[in-house]
Amino acid sequence: MNISPLQEARYKYEPKLPEILKNAVDAIKVSLGDPTQSVADQEELKQLFPNTYGMPVAGFTKGENPGAGKAINVGVILSGGQAPGGHNVIAGLYDGLKKGNKNSKLIGFLGGPSGLTSDEALEFSDEYMDRYRNTGGFDIIGSGRTKLETEEQFDTCIEVCKKRNISALVIIGGDDSNTNAAVLAEYFQQKKASIQVIGVPKTIDGDLKNEHIETSFGFDTATKTYSELIGNIERDANSAKKYWHFIKLMGRSASHIALECALQTRPNVAIISEEVEEKKQTLDQVVGNIIDTIVTRAEKGENFGVVLVPEGLIEFIPEMKTLIGELNDLLAEHQAYYATLNTFEDQSEWINKNLSRESSYVFSSLPNNIQRQLLMDRDPHGNVQVSRIETEKLLIEIIEDRLREMKTEGRYSGKFSHQHHFFGYEGRCAFPSNFDADYCYSLGFNAFVLIANGLTGYMSSVKNLSKPASEWIAGGIPVTMMMNLEQRHGKKKPVIRKALVELDGKPFKAFAAERETWAVETSFAYPGAIQYYGPDEVCNQPTMTLKIEHK
Amino acid sequence: MNISPLQEARYKYEPKLPEILKNAVDAIKVSLGDPTQSVADQEELKQLFPNTYGMPVAGFTKGENPGAGKAINVGVILSGGQAPGGHNVIAGLYDGLKKGNKNSKLIGFLGGPSGLTSDEALEFSDEYMDRYRNTGGFDIIGSGRTKLETEEQFDTCIEVCKKRNISALVIIGGDDSNTNAAVLAEYFQQKKASIQVIGVPKTIDGDLKNEHIETSFGFDTATKTYSELIGNIERDANSAKKYWHFIKLMGRSASHIALECALQTRPNVAIISEEVEEKKQTLDQVVGNIIDTIVTRAEKGENFGVVLVPEGLIEFIPEMKTLIGELNDLLAEHQAYYATLNTFEDQSEWINKNLSRESSYVFSSLPNNIQRQLLMDRDPHGNVQVSRIETEKLLIEIIEDRLREMKTEGRYSGKFSHQHHFFGYEGRCAFPSNFDADYCYSLGFNAFVLIANGLTGYMSSVKNLSKPASEWIAGGIPVTMMMNLEQRHGKKKPVIRKALVELDGKPFKAFAAERETWAVETSFAYPGAIQYYGPDEVCNQPTMTLKIEHK
């Protein structure tokens, strides 16, 4: 391993913990509140989780917990996409466990949940752990997207844990993985398997949050990295004064990333998918809003700007969602016939005849190469691969066409040159910001304390995050409390409710209050690279979203 | 202006200067060496620059220079693409000027060289200057790409300078702009205009360097920013273990950026255009090398990796260069007829018939949409727009085809999923690293000291950069010394010789010595974000290129 100077330096960083977690682990006692309810579908969920539904919120106080010193084996899994700080969750868990009893063991299952069912694992040592402290990535044990859903898998989990004498599992993942953690906890209880399960809220998308989980880890570092790049591009745009930059940001289901980045960088336009959906905007309207800004700025001689586009936008535009649905149905139903159509012309002609009138109109109005993407890039099930659609280019092409038209009509006399960017992979494995390094370490340490207090089916929770770490509040939230039932593949399934951007929430309102100025005046802000050292206000600030939400 | 916490903090940073420049400006005296020669074409250049050819290298010593305290007006111009640190060159120049005499004035011409000929300018004040210290971008006065080349322009420059009582111009730009600065200096001498001209070496590309100019400013910050992102992507690749990432890096004529980033991040493959050209590699061979790596890694179960691709690659592949040349000639010659061909099929058929046998073969073997780009995206002169060709996608498409073939033949059994990225605009306007902040401030301050010592036709030079700033050596290099004659648009023109990557240079050798290991073993290094604070080894290091070159 070749170690960069920053990595070497970060090894020495000591993450901050909430006050209560600084005590000896056998001096931290759980304090339980009243029974809880799920956010919806209480009766159904109660039946699905007879053993773990309704458990109380857990807090910690100083007090004796003699059991915390017992030597135990704990298993840990990283699940799903990378998020900065995963290594620190494991470091916190490891340190807590060893603080409890130095003979305790932490077993890391390799390559995600599949490592548990196939029993591929490593045992952590001090030396191994030290090579990953305060670093980005999930390379410490790897991650994977296998879902633990079937009873067969659950039984294998029990077997593997028994064999390895593991009495608790920590699952680090997003909403889906934490849902599965809760199902697993329930199953283990039902089978009296004596294996506790604790979840840890991870996702750069920021959509795993609620009253009790203020933010998922990784969101802070990822949005700071994207904002660094957006700010740099804004400054370039404002220096060269010749390009409109369209920047697509990772995140398919929610626009928290786009919103946070907009608050940090004050671009001319930031599209928020949830607003597009709520206002039932057409593609035409979405484009129209951008064009208005381009034209107004052109009138002031400013033929440059920055537009933020959330990756999942297209699925939030009602007419596009309908079109994609119809295409999927058509192509699935007439797969055999469709396969005989060899040219794009034949395909699109046939498609156009078979779409609904509305969708046919929408399809025809799309640029040619987007039509191609919709018809040609399909997944093995025949579905349109929405993530392959280059939304930023789609917008650019339509805008170009429209401006050309307006120019001939004398309604626009500017110059529209453009660049496009997509930021996603750049931010998922950055060295965690001090915030994420501290938060993740605390979540991991906290997960151990929950285990040491005998809890299962809980999510590790650290709150009051807009304050300094010393004021953070550690505890546990029963996962069932965040659940409701949702339709998935035709079945009602218990899932953690995804947190979308709320249009009446404070962060969106803060954005909405300023965006009209940002659209026209050049109001760019340049956050610069994440700093791990330096003045407090530079290196120890949480996201704007968190600050605004908890002001 | 909304100021980010980092920007606020950076305002307070005090850039470091070489020891000699810390003296009172009237206590810094120039010391001149022997007459110099240009790197080539000495006789011709002597005739082209009768007044400024052969001037000695200038150094500084302690000694009296009473003229330095005179109140003067100096003009400054930013020319060409953005590079981090431009604002600090101006800050250093401003501070030097004001240290000489607080009644001296610094005039910034707006929007690049055209601001000088159209006399659009602002006068710097302390307050205005302070808003830009240690920040990225060229937004302080804007930049532009107008070239100062004609006598008419030169005469206008004289007029504007006379009107504003400007006795010296500082031109901050790349090789072309510095060449023009030298031509301007010569012209002013010839016309006895009493206007000095000093150039400052700028370009993120790193191709403006030689024995006397160790590096151009901006290269350090830009490559650190790109390396941050490459490292993050490498760590993501190594965590998810499912993608090959193809990363194109800005820089059309030289591969210094790709080489520096490779040294910092140790990717599996880094293509160096100069090597491709020198070894006369075909597109087939370039692709073949990457495929070898992919296949070897796949055999070890590692279906992931990172490939760095320099933006200008395609023009360094001899057969592609020939093809593009032929296409340009054909399309220019038969413009009228070609315009009657409406479909891509007709166009490519006609093209194929008219290309040389070799080029026809190369053209036919290209993926369809690259053929389209070559035929359709042409500039107003009918030339192929090489910069529009998505080289990273071209490579991916050919590799995909080839691997599919190898799979059916049983020679490859891996999985090839891919992502592509292009980094350019992300790094040109970052907050300058401490190195660039110090270097640029020193270059600017130094430019004033050269002016105060009556020099013209010199480039501001700060050497010994691999050492701490206190050991840096300030001075001036006559621009003619770096020149030779080159063919440009059919004419022999005096230009500063571009520095390409030298295959027998130390940085390339250091890379070449390790790349076979990097190709197969996962040897990624993760530099992380640029740090402006923290331990010295984290925040005060020059580039690897500079360190290796001056070891």
From TrEMBL, chains A, B:
GO terms for biological process: fructose 6-phosphate metabolic process; response to glucose. Its main location: cytoplasm. Its cofactor is Mg(2+). Pfam families: PFK (PF00365). The gene is pfp. This is Pyrophosphate--fructose 6-phosphate 1-phosphotransferase. Residues 73-319 form the Phosphofructokinase domain. One of its GO terms (molecular function) is 6-phosphofructokinase activity. The record marks 176 as: Important for catalytic activity and substrate specificity. It is found in: Cytoplasm. Mg(2+) binds at residue 175. It comes from Marispirochaeta aestuarii. Keywords: Cytoplasm, Glycolysis, Kinase, Magnesium, Metal-binding, Transferase. Catalyzes the phosphorylation of D-fructose 6-phosphate, the first committing step of glycolysis. Uses inorganic phosphate (PPi) as phosphoryl donor instead of ATP like common ATP-dependent phosphofructokinases (ATP-PFKs), which renders the reaction reversible, and can thus function both in glycolysis and gluconeogenesis. Consistently, PPi-PFK can replace the enzymes of both the forward (ATP-PFK) and reverse (fructose-bisphosphatase (FBPase)) reactions. The active site is at residue 205.
